[in-house]
Design a protein that fits this description.
The chain has four helices and twelve strands. It has helices at 3-43, 119-132, 155-161, 163-169; strands at residues 48-55, 58-68, 73-79, 85-90, 95-100, 105-110, 139-145, 151-152, 173-176, 178-179, 190-194, 198-204. The strands form two sheets. The protein has an eight-stranded mixed sheet, with helices on both faces. α1 (3-43) crosses α2.
Length: 207
């Protein structure tokens, strides 16, 4: 075997690896282009859009999310038996309210741009999951409340929180939520939010 013959398999291997690398790069570029187009298409949809979403790790948990672009409202309804929840994102008043069926109470937090996607971004993500028929693990926001510190909403509170949150929470105990780190024991935390897009983990503060 000559030196040239010995070199040929190595050269062929390098060529195949280069082809594979170019193929993977092409796939990534195509996926990026599709996601950009999805974002463009979603911005052209109607002012009222409803999506059916599922949890990534639980086939029995389903949710619907409705986006009201004109009113700057997102409504999420998660159906999981006794652990069901309804959540409203009010982007005009910058508050989020979650009603947990297991506690028959409402939990309210101020929107933080660092953790909460903007209205258009939530719509784009939902449209992407619907079109691509993919289920993703959501980003999670960990929050906590203090038991025994609930109030019942007043007219002044509803002016601050807005009408949609009033309709969700009127007559129920209201708990204020604050952001926290994931606790060592998460089994006592409730799950809410938007399946496959944004999880809200609600934990009771341990004294």
């Amino acid at each position: 075997m000559t030196g040239i013959d010995a070199f040929m398999p190595i050269k062929a291997g390098i060529f195949r690896r280069t082809q594979f690398s170019d193929f993977k790069r092409s796939q990534r570029l195509q996926k990026a282009a599709v996601l950009i187009l999805l974002g463009v298409f979603w911005t052209q949809t109607s002012a009222l859009e409803t999506f059916l979403l599922r949890e990534a790790d639980d086939d029995y948990v389903t949710g619907t999310m409705t986006i009201q672009n004109e009113n700057h409202i997102v409504e999420a309804h998660v159906r999981a038996g006794v652990y069901s929840s309804d959540t409203i994102f009010d982007y005009s008043h910058r508050y989020i309210a979650t009603r947990l069926f297991s506690r028959n109470a409402c939990f309210i937090m101020k929107m933080n741009k660092k953790y909460i996607p903007e209205l258009q971004e939530i719509g784009r993500l939902a449209f992407e999951r619907k079109t691509m028929k993919a289920i993703y693990s959501p980003d999670n926001v960990w929050v906590q409340f203090q038991s025994g510190r609930s109030i019942f909403g007043t007219i002044k509170d509803w002016l601050v929180y807005g009408k949609p949150i009033e309709q969700l929470c009127r007559g129920l105990p209201l708990y204020q939520l604050v952001e926290t780190q994931p606790p060592l024991n998460v089994h006592g935390c409730a799950k809410a939010g938007i399946p496959s897009i944004l999880g809200i983990k609600i934990c009771e503060k341990v004294h």
